[in-house]
Design goal:
By secondary structure, the chain is an alpha/beta fold. Helices cover about 25% and strands about 15% of the residues. The chain has helices at about 1-15, 40-50, 85-95, 105-115, 155-165, 205-225, 250-260, 315-325, 345-360, and strands at about 50-55, 120-125, 170-175, 235, 265, 295, 330-335, 365-370, 375, 380-385, 390-395, 405-410, 415-420, 425, 425-430, 435, 445-450.
Length: about 450
């Protein structure tokens, strides 16, 4: 079986489509409920200042380098290697737990690469839909800590990841899939597994369902109960199961005893347990006033796949500028290899993003929205005190900077300042149009300007 599937794996990498292309994750324009807990509101404001984070998918799927979890879900949009048998394929996939041995696992390398990128928070996948735990769960043997990696002192992977990122000042978050396709209380082997949902009717087997709910509550309790330090975010995926179905309110009440102000992200569900919304693989068309985050992978997939086509640093920078101007944060998906490292191609891209942010980050970090936020290639943000506007000129790949840039409105008091070097630039205002002349020796890259304004004009 291993030989057959590994020979066909290249086809699988190309043919398994990501779940979000099928409509389960969308931007919600309304229905947002602001938290009532003052500690949650305070942390939410601090999170909105960070703007740029990393979402790390690492699990069984990393061993062959395929799309995370979805190849074992029997829905008509999923394609497995030609000629494969579904039940045998699932056995092969589950069996990867006996092969996953990341001897080069180095969370410090991950944290360093992400810090160099200018990222400020991390969401680590403790368990994806396939049910395989990337931490030492006491409630299952289906975990990285019970396989070939069990005797390694780093086998409680999540602990070492969170610790490595905290050392570098990151806000930390745990991704957790509410659905668990490996647990017999969710997909029971008595029945076939036709789709992502539980494969039985709850009213016919209430004991099965209760076993799944109890298992999920127990696992969330061990993740948020203090064993992994104070967590800032609980990022719950799998929106076809609502938090209310697993007793999320009670889970959060207990979790916040150990993690004061912890943000809850019950994705796509709405209501009081979705403290910020998470449009996936997309950027909303317009500004959104409440807290939100676009989650986008650096490649086409969330986990590591061989020879992935990565986005360029400039593409990420330009997207970050757009998201910030629209009021959101960007969490960028990065997948370590099965050996436990972020590959060098990714590291180089992340470093280039960080180089830009080290010079121009004032226009991104800690900013808020301003009414006139977009004109052409320009994206505008505002300082929290309203004293400054920032204009990011998002230069497309393969193009050169113009000699000058112009926009209507957002009139500065005095000259615009180029954040790169702090130079004051020739600034002319005529009939409501602002024109800024750019130096002739600038490299062809996106740039950011600081504009002093009266506080009322940036609101």
């Amino acid at each position: 079986m291993n030989k057959f599937f590994l020979a066909a794996i290249a086809a699988l990498i190309c043919t398994v489509a990501p779940a979000q292309d099928h409509g389960d994750v969308v931007a919600q324009a309304d229905g947002y409920m602001w938290p009532s807990d003052g500690a949650v509101l305070e942390k939410l404001d601090r999170w909105q200042d960070l703007k740029f984070g990393v979402l790390i998918h690492w699990g069984l799927y990393s061993v062959p380098g395929i799309v995370e979890s979805w190849s074992i879900c029997n829905e008509d949009w999923i394609t497995r290697p030609e000629g494969s048998d579904y039940e045998e394929y699932k056995k092969w996939y589950w069996g990867l737990s006996k092969e996953f041995n990341p001897v080069d696992f180095d969370p410090s390398q991950w944290a360093e690469a992400c810090a160099d990128a200018g990222m400020k928070y991390v969401i680590f996948t403790t368990k994806h839909h396939d049910g395989f735990c990337m931490y030492d769960s006491r409630f299952t043997d289906f975990t990285i800590a019970k396989g070939p990696f069990a005797d390694d002192p780093r086998s409680d992977v999540a602990k070492h990841v969170f610790d490595a990122f905290r050392v570098r000042g990151f806000m930390t978050g745990a991704y957790f899939s509410k659905p668990d396709w490996h647990h017999h209380g969710f997909w029971n082997p008595y029945y076939a597994t036709p789709d992502r949902m539980p494969n039985y009717r709850r009213e016919m087997h209430p004991d099965w369902w209760e076993s799944y709910v109890k298992f999920t509550q127990d696992q969330l309790g061990e993740i948020t109960g203090g064993r992994y330090g104070s967590l800032d975010i609980l990022w719950l995926d799998g929106g076809w199961i609502a938090g209310g179905q697993i007793g999320l309110d009670g889970i959060l009440e207990e979790a916040r005893r150990h993690n004061p102000g912890m943000l809850s992200v019950d994705r796509t569900i709405g209501g009081p347990d979705e403290n910020y919304q998470t449009p996936e693989r997309m950027v909303p068309d317009a500004q959104i006033a409440h807290p939100w985050e676009s989650c986008l992978p650096l490649s086409n997939d969330w986990g590591w796949v061989p020879d992935a086509p990565y986005k360029s640093a400039r593409t990420v920078v330009n997207t970050l500028a757009e998201i910030t101007a629209k009021g959101g944060c960007l969490v960028l998906g990065v997948g370590p290899t099965a050996q436990g490292l972020i590959e060098e191609r990714e590291v180089k891209i992340l470093r280039k993003i960080g180089d830009w942010l080290s010079v121009n980050g004032e226009a991104i970090y800690g900013t808020r929205i301003t009414p006139d936020y977009h004109q052409g290639r320009l994206w505008f943000t505002a300082s929290k005190d309203g004293k400054y506007l920032y204009a990011v000129y998002a230069l497309p790949e393969g193009e050169s900077l113009p000699k000058s840039i112009s926009w209507k409105g957002n009139v500065p008091e005095g000259k615009a300042v180029l954040l790169s070097g702090g130079r004051k630039l020739k600034t002319v205002v005529k009939d409501g149009t602002v024109t800024v002349t750019l130096p002739g020796n600038l490299p062809d890259d996106s740039i950011a300007l600081r504009l002093r304004v009266s506080p009322s004009s940036s609101r």
